[in-house]
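Can't attach files on this board, so I'm pasting raw text. These are the components:
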Amino acid sequence: MKRIYILLFISFLFSQEKSLERASSALRAGMFQEALIHISESVTKNPKNPEVYKVKGLLHEALDEKKDAIISWEKCIKYSKNKRLKKEAQVHLKNLKID
Amino acid sequence: MFKKSLPIILVLISSCYDRPVINTNYNFNEIKSINLSSIKDYKDLTGSGEMVQSSLDYNFLKYGFEVIDSNKNKFILINKNSKNMLTLSCIITEYTESESIVLPYRTEDRGYTKTIINQTSEDNEENENFEKLETSTTTHAGTLSQGSRIVYSQSRISLILSLTDNKSGRIVWSKSTWYSGLELQRTINMCLKDGVNELRKIIR
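---
Top answer:
Structure tokens for the assembled complex are below.
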């Protein structure tokens, strides 16, 4: 039983790493739509990671998806304990909310 | 000497913060026009000043300002009947076209609680129905492991905008702003959007 748990956990980690690797490659290639798909997969697997929400927010901004960007930055603030990251998220939120 | 330079020092110190610094004694309702002084390049990055300049024009136009580019200078016309003329200067304090960002990705295993319930029913010697209930609970604490990482490049822009009264030479408004993003042009636009938005609050 213990072995099954360990195997499940390792496979979970690998599937996350794969989607992150794909997201990183797509980001570096400037394929923002594709990167967003993989980042969204990572968010589903680990929905409380503020760093992933930061990248998701940046991607939504680059794709002109203002509403989704606001949601991502708000979640970044919610789950982050890092002051710098929180400040960055606040700056983005302020600018995105300007009419 | 100190008394004279104190307002300038205060403006410069305060411009380090996000909120704009405003000279409350100045009458912003009497502005005729704002001259847009040319923006110098950041260090040796040729064209950086021009990029910020064109983005500034774009943002002013976007917010409904009338930008006039005559042979001698570029300015924004606010009110023909007013007298005061201001000059807007913009200093680029940071201009990073592309910097590599590595975000460590932490995976959180929140642990689990396993409860086993054994329920058995058996007859004893006196033929009475006897029920037996056993429970055991195991708790796994969980771990926080750092596995993969996200590597990407981002742009970062930081600017200081200041308004100076042409007649007195006083700095009447100042604002520092910064932004980061995946694309340079969008980052500059968003950075100036904040600055121009703050500026229009005092003019209109």
